[in-house]
Amino acid sequence: MYYKGTKSECQALLAKMDTKYGYPNAQDKTDTTSYILEETGVDYCLLYITDDYRQYLTTDENKKTISDLPDAFIWQE
């Protein structure tokens, strides 16, 4: 599942996810729980959301989730 929003919205949600799961984690050298996806020519960003985090999304955040990766984010030859 992906959260579809502005870059600042995605950054804010990523910060909440990292806090929830205790990242960055120096012990296993993992910096973050997810990454923000950006694509040239697209006016929004995507953030991958794990299934177990969905329960922590607000109603407004949940409304901005999509299940499939949009074509603009799929690499094509």
Short description:
This protein has helices spanning 7-21, 59-63; strands spanning 2-5, 36-37, 45-48, 65-66. It is an alpha+beta fold and 77 residues long. A hairpin with a 7-residue loop joins strand 2 and strand 3 (45-48).
Low-confidence stretches: none
Helical segment tally?
A: 2
Main sheet: which strands, in order across? 2-3-1-4
- Succession of helices and strands: EHEEHE
Give a short account of the largest sheet.
4 strands, antiparallel
Helix content range: 25-40%
Structural class: alpha+beta
The coarse silhouette is globular
Cα-atom radius of gyration: 13 Å
Number of strands: 4
Report the mean per-residue pLDDT as an integer.
89
The portion of residues forming beta strands comes to 15-25%
Distance between the termini: 25 Å
What does this protein structure show overall?
The protein is of the alpha+beta class and 77 residues long. It is built from two helices and four strands, in the order βαββαβ. The protein has a four-stranded antiparallel sheet with strand order 2-3-1-4. The chain is globular.
Explain the layout of strands and helices.
Layout (H helix, E strand, L loop, with lengths): L1 E4 L1 H15 L14 E2 L7 E4 L10 H5 L1 E2 L11
Antiparallel strand pairs: 1-3, 1-4, 2-3
Task: Describe the structure using short key phrases.
single chain; four-stranded antiparallel sheet; 77 residues; 2 helices; globular
